[in-house]
Amino acid sequence: MHRKILMNGVLVLMFAMLGAGCGPGLKENFEDYMTSMEDVHALDTEYENKMGQLDIDGLPEELSPRNTDIDLEKLTAISEALDQEIMPVIEQMNDKVGNIEVTNDQLADLHDTYTESLEVKQNFVQGLNDYVETYALSVRSNEELIQLSQDFMENQEERDEVIDSAGSGEETEEIDAIISQINENSAELEAESEILQLDESQVTKMEHIENVLLPLIDGHIQTFNQMNLETDSAVRVRSLTLEMYYGFRKYYQERKSSMEYNNRLQELQLQNILPLRETYEQLDEDYNAQVEEIESEL
């Protein structure tokens, strides 16, 4: 009699221990998880819809003067959509996913698959936006270089007209002094700019622009400003010359920016960014397959 009571007590204790060690079942955990992921899944659908509206298939892979059909407005529109519409959706998903706690091992594997997909999505959007934005900046930079060259030629033509119209001896003397200074400056600038035509690294060329060419041009500008001129013609020649030198400065600054953009494009490499889309799409398929597998076990 006492032995039977003892055995019953052991059985009760075992059931109590089992009951204490078991939390909610997989079904309840899974239902709670899917409920907590509803907003995330809705945002994911929004992300896919917005990405589907972007025409990224025809993006140029390399910057070249031969790419005359580049649509700058299209590049700008894609960059703005990625930055202002799509990336905020990714950030919302990250915030919501970060607040979801998973304790069940099977659901933890499922959740890891989703978070990995989300990370790849973010890398894809950020990389694509960096590429498109940098490409657009590079195109604009090249256009600015062309415009600066045109402005230089126009200023030079106007300056030559003023020089040719000089009549008095004083005008001629002052203008000759300006021309002499121009020739001296041009020789210095030409000698120092030769490195940009050599087979040097882009970094070396950018450093040369920043540390040598720009300070040299600043010194030339200062020299012109310090000249004492009395005649209107000479003052006008100096004014047009200064415009040209400020144009030089902008030109070399833009050359440096253009090099920076091109270097950045080389680092980004569109062909390394686009495959990320296939990667996260495969992860999404794996996630959905895991969901279906769990549902089949319930």
Structure description:
It is a single chain. This protein is mainly alpha-helical and 298 residues long. 83% of the residues lie in helices and 0% in strands. The protein has ten helices and no strands. The protein has helices spanning 2-21, 26-36, 38-52, 72-98, 105-165, 169-193, 202-225, 232-268, 270-273, 275-297. The chain is rod-shaped and about 105 Å long.
What is the share of helical residues? over 70%
Structural class: mainly alpha
Largest sheet: none
| Morphology call | rod-shaped
**What is the strand content?**
under 5%
Tally of individual helices:
10
Distance between the termini: 43 Å
Question: Measured on Cα atoms, how large is the radius of gyration?
Answer: 34 Å
List unreliable stretches of 5+ residues: 1-23
The strand count comes to 0
Topology as a string of helices (H) and strands (E): HHHHHHHHHH
Mean pLDDT: 89
